[in-house]
Design a protein that fits this description.
CATH class: Alpha Beta
Strand content: 35-45%
Helix content: 25-40%
Number of helices: 4
CATH superfamily: Molybdopterin biosynthesis MoaE subunit
Oligomer: single chain
Number of domains: 1
Radius of gyration: 16 Å
Strand order of the largest sheet: 1-6-8-2
Number of strands: 10
């Protein structure tokens, strides 16, 4: 059976419950859905953040996410994946990213979701610009994100 994978990059917000319902509708092979949602923070490193703008490389971003989704399918017995990543300007409290991993059992779903988020955070071609009281700045990559992705080994 082919594992259904949904990958979307969009400006519009998403509804987590609706995404889970779409993934599981009519499916009796799913026993677990693990979700991760990333939300825009109002502060970073103790400084207030007024907004966050995310940019991406169209086509390349979807391909990169698809490559990691395919790797997750090889590594764990998942029965569905949904990855939604927003771009554009977001305010504190707004949704940024959603990863859903479905499987017959919870452990595979947890592992696949964590793997995908670690790679999205460290390697997906997105660029973030924060708006603060003292101006705007591009967000630098963090060593902790690279370390999290590295623990999964080479893909």
């Amino acid at each position: 059976m082919t594992v259904p994978v949904t990958i979307r990059i969009q400006e519009a917000d998403f509804d987590i419950a609706a995404e889970i319902a779409a993934m599981t509708k009519g499916r009796t092979d799913i026993g677990a859905v693990v979700s991760f949602s990333g939300i825009c923070r109002g502060a970073d490193d103790g400084d207030d953040v007024a907004a966050l703008t995310l940019e991406h490389y169209p086509g390349m971003a979807e391909d990169e996410i698809g490559r990691h989704a395919a790797e997750a399918i090889k590594r764990w017995p998942v029965t569905g994946l949904t990855i939604v990543h927003r771009v554009g300007r977001m305010l504190p409290g707004d949704n940024i990213v959603l990863v859903l991993a479905a499987s017959a059992h919870r452990q595979a779903a947890f592992s696949a979701a964590e793997f995908l988020m670690d790679y999205l955070k460290a390697n997906a071609p997105f660029w973030k610009r924060e708006e603060r009281a003292d101006g705007t700045r591009w967000v630098e990559a963090h060593d902790r994100d690279d370390a999290a992705a590295a623990r999964w080994g080479k893909d």
